[in-house]
Amino acid sequence: MKEITASMAGTVWQVLVAEGDTVSAGQSVIILESMKMEIPIDASEEGTVAELKVASGDFVNEGDVLVVLK
């Protein structure tokens, strides 16, 4: 399993994928909002979304797991 983690603390503004979706390397999967800026979080590898660990409105810290790929 591969994990996509938050690169900084912020609020999950938008979830761009659903469980079962196939993602490619470089594809944005989550958009965080921090200090009125939108920060896209991209998949570093291709895979299938096995689990979403967050939902819109959740607060996350740097390093928190957002998405699990298989």
TrEMBL record:
EC code(s) of this entry: 6.4.1.2
Matches recorded under PROSITE patterns: BIOTINYL_LIPOYL
Gene3D superfamilies, per database record: 2.40.50.100
Database matches in SUPFAM superfamilies: Single hybrid motif
Residue spans crossing the bilayer: none
EC class of the enzyme, as a word: ligase
Single GO MF annotation: acetyl-CoA carboxylase activity
Entry keyword Ligase: yes
Keywords associated with the record: Biotin, Ligase
Residue ranges occupied by any Lipoyl-binding domain in the UniProt entry: 1-70
Pfam families: Biotin_lipoyl
Superkingdom of origin organism: Bacteria
Cited InterPro entries: Biotin_Carboxyl_Carrier/Decarb, Biotin_lipoyl, Single_hybrid_motif
NCBIfam families, alphabetized: PRK05889.1, PRK08225.1
Protein name: Acetyl-CoA carboxylase biotin carboxyl carrier protein subunit
Record organism: Fictibacillus aquaticus
Native organism taxonomy: Bacteria, Bacillati, Bacillota, Bacilli, Bacillales
